[in-house]
Design a protein that fits this description.
There is one protein chain. The chain has 285 residues and is α+β, with helices and mostly antiparallel strands. The chain folds into two domains: 142 residues; 129 residues, no CATH class. Helices cover 42% and strands 22% of the residues. It is built from seven helices and eleven strands. The relative contact order is 0.13.
Length: 285
């Protein structure tokens, strides 16, 4: 009779689930919240441990496994406009990881296996952590070539923004999901990380993180610094945000790739748009 230590089982599945959620986020370009990923991994690890308790064998049913996976994705990435994409990539990465574990079993590596639909191992804890980290690196390297945004496919373009003789150059992602428009003109609006646009402002006048998080309070002071008609509040809606506000800036000129956008309106996001730093602005297709 094989003895299963619940604490080791929980820790192993927590590490694996965290790395799977992390890999899914990186492959889909999500902004990662480590605390939420840890909560999602804890949910998955709790499910894995519960499946071994007497009387809870029904948890091994495929429907329960899928429900647990969906719950992990909702905890880790709930509210994201790329939630469906993150969920699909998570299940693909999890399937790739499960295939790797089964391959190790077939090759005679009996230290790690799938029991009751969850990862189980009799290996030393240090070997477990190293194996999980190795699987994470392998999966992200292989699947990253497919999921990564690239300039060759026209997804990443150079954006040159100018304001009163000052100029910044950003990498922008052409995002078909970005439908933000100026309600006054109907023209497309670029969304950019506010911190990356500090070069457009006179020294010492760029809005700080707190001002970007409270755009209504910052609008008056910023308008006084740059002159009337330069700044405004821009309403937006997103998953989990019924009605939000962004501080927006009217540029003198903007060139995105080979296209001249003229006096584009750019919304200053208070947070990073890409966890990996691959791009710092979003523009509609």
């Amino acid at each position: 009779m094989q003895v299963v230590y619940i604490d080791s089982l929980f820790l192993l599945n927590f590490v694996v689930d965290y790395l799977l959620l992390l890999a899914a986020g990186r492959l889909t370009g999500e902004v990662l919240c480590r605390g939420r990923l840890a909560l999602g991994a804890a949910l998955g690890a709790g499910y894995a441990a519960a499946a071994f308790f007497p009387g809870l064998a029904f948890l091994t049913h495929p429907a329960c496994r899928v429900a647990a996976g969906v719950g992990m994705v909702l905890v880790g990435y709930g509210g994201s406009r790329r939630l469906l994409r993150a969920g699909l990539v998570f299940f693909a990465v999890a399937a790739a990881f499960g295939g790797g574990v089964l391959a190790l079993e077939l090759l005679g590596g009996g230290g790690m296996s799938l029991q009751n639909g969850v990862v189980f191992s009799t290996l030393d804890l240090r070997l477990i952590l190293l194996s999980a980290a190795g699987c994470y690196v392998g999966i992200t390297l292989v699947l990253g070539r497919v999921a990564r945004h690239s300039g060759a496919r026209g997804e990443l373009v150079e954006a040159v923004l100018t304001l009163e003789g000052r100029r910044v150059v950003l990498t922008a992602l052409v995002d078909t999901g970005n439908t933000l428009t100026d309600p006054a003109t109907g023209r497309a609006v670029m969304v950019a990380e506010g911190e990356k646009l500090s070069g457009l402002f006179p020294p010492g006048t760029a809005p700080g993180p707190e001002e970007l998080r409270n755009p209504a309070a910052a609008l008056e002071g910023l308008s006084a610094r740059l002159g009337p008609g330069r700044c405004r509040l821009l309403p937006y809606r997103a998953v989990g945000v019924e009605c939000g506000m962004l501080l927006a800036l009217r540029l003198d000129g903007a060139r995105v790739g080979r296209e001249d956008y003229g006096r584009l309106l750019v919304a200053l996001a208070p947070n990073c748009l890409s966890d990996g730093g691959g791009y710092s602005a979003l523009v509609g297709a």
